[in-house]
Fold this sequence. Notes:
By secondary structure, the protein is of the alpha+beta class. 22% of the residues lie in helices and 45% in strands. It contains 2 helices and 10 strands; from the N terminus they run ααββββββββββ. It has helices at 2-24, 56-84; strands at 89-101, 109-120, 123-135, 141-151, 160-173, 177-194, 199-209, 214-215, 220-221, 226-236. It has an 8-stranded antiparallel barrel with strand order 1-2-3-4-5-6-7-10. A two-stranded antiparallel sheet has the order 8-9. Strand 8 and strand 9 (220-221) form a beta hairpin. The longest helix has 29 residues, at 56-84. The radius of gyration is 41 Å and the shape is rod-shaped.
Amino acid sequence: MKVQRIVAVLAVICASSCFSTAQESPFNPSHCCCGGTPFGGGADSAEAIVVREDSPMGMNALGNAKTAQTTRKQIISQKKDVSGSVKASFAWGADIGASIDLTGNDMSAFDFNVFLGLKRGWLNFLGLGVGADISITNSSRAYPVFFAFRTNFRDRPSVVFWDLRGGMAYNQLEHNHEQWAVYGSTGIGVNLARNSKFDSSLSLNYIFRQRKKVVGAEMTHDFTDLHMISVRLGVIF
């Protein structure tokens, strides 16, 4: 009788130990002091372990899954934002430079230009501009009115860009002659200091200025076209 009571007490203690161990470590049934799983089945039995959603392990797994899904949605949203953030915006700027006459007509000049338009992605600038070319050694002047185009051929910022301008110039020539003639400029530039509000640059440009023949009452002035090299320092806001 005493032996049976002792066996019964030991059985109760073993069951309690298994029950508490199962609650603390649901994935380690071998920790049971009886050498088996807490719910029957030996150490060699292969039983599927079901994790309850309201258990700590289940809540942790669900939380990780939701976090991963949220992160994925954020990444997709950011990609959409990046692709959709390339918008056209108003821009204006100015540059100043000096031009060297390559034709031997002694028409080297100081240049000043202002322009306004828009920019968007690879289109660094597109708009209209006006300028003044003031000859250094004589009283000649030219006032170009032009379309301006600048690009680096990519949506991201880069060091080098291409600049193109074309239009007409109002020429004030020697002997008080005035005329409208073709004006064009193209060149390669490099970006200098920049931030979210402005871009500064330095460029080397070729300039073409047409000068038409003028037939006067007393004589004919055979003005020749100008080919010039210009260095410009500019900024775009």
